[in-house]
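Re-run requested by the PI after the first attempt was lost when the workstation crashed. Everything re-entered from the original request form. Ligand of interest: 1-O-phosphono-alpha-D-ribofuranose.
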Amino acid sequence: MSIKHSELILNPDGSIYHLNLRPEHISTDIIFVGDQYRVDKVTKHFDSIEFTTQKREFKTTTGTYNGKRLTVISTGIGPDNIDIVLNELDALVNIDLETRQPKENHTKLNITRIGTSGSLQADIPVNSFLLSSHAIDLNGMLQSYQVEDIAHSDIEEAFIEHTNWSQRKSYPLVIANGKSLEEKLVSDKVHLGMTATAGGFYGPQGRVLRLPLQDADLNAKIDSFNHNGIRVTNLEMETSAIYGLSKLLGHDAASMNALIANRANGTFSEDPGKVVADLIKYTLDKLTE
Ligand code: R1P
C-alpha cells in the first residue's frame, strides 16, 4: 500500500513539504539548531558548501567539514517542529518518494542538536556544555506514538511521585540517548544529565510574568529530583522530541546544550553568543575526529 498524498506531501519539484528537500540534498550526519541564523554560524567553518535552501524557519545547508559531509538544519522552537523535521528527514531516507512505500533497507541518521538551555543545578554554571544522557518529556508530543518500548518507567514513576505531577498534564516520558554519538561527543569539558523538555517557554518552564502557575513549587521539586544519581540538569524545548522520535524511527541522536542561564541562582551568561560559538566548534571537531 502506498502512502496517500494527504499523508506524505510533496512539493511540485518532488521535495518534501515543509523542509523543501529531496533525498540527494542531505547527509546521514545531521546537526539541528533552533535558530535559523545559527545555521550559518555552523557552516561558516565548513571546507565547502554544496546546497542550501530555506522554507519558513527550516533552513538547510549541506557541505563538508574536515572532509566529512554534514547537513545543518534549523528546526525553529519546540517539539511540534521536531515532529515535522524528524518525520520528513526520515521519509527522505526511508521512504521511496516515487512509489510512496517504505524502503526495505533502513538508513540510520546521526542527529546532533546544538542548542541553548537553562541549567537547573547550582553546580552546573552558565557558560558550560551539557550532553543529555536522557530526556524527560513534559510536553506530550510523543504520546501520539507507541512509546511503551522506549520508556524508562522506573525513572518516570519516581519523578511523578517526587513532584506530585498533576494528572492533567501529559505523562512525563523518559528516553535515553542512543549512546554511540554520546561516546563521540563526551569529554571532561561536558556535563551529563537528564534534560527536561517543556512545551513552552514561560509557564511550562516555571516562569512567571503575569500568570500564576498550576504548581509554583514545581521547578524546585524538579531541581531536587534524584533517582539513582539521575538528576534533571536543564530545561529546554526540543531534546525529548528528538530522542523519542529518533529511537522510534531507528536513528541515533545526541543533544548538546550551551547553558546560557542558571535558573537555580538566577544568572544569565554575559556572552551567550560566545558559549554557543564555542559549543559549535567543539561539536564539529568531535563529530569529525
Ligand atoms: C527558547 O528561547 C529556545 O531556545 C532553546 C530552547 O530549546 C528553545 O528552542 O534552544 P535553541 O536556542 O536551540 O532554539
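Saved to the shared folder this time. The longest strand covers residues 252-262.
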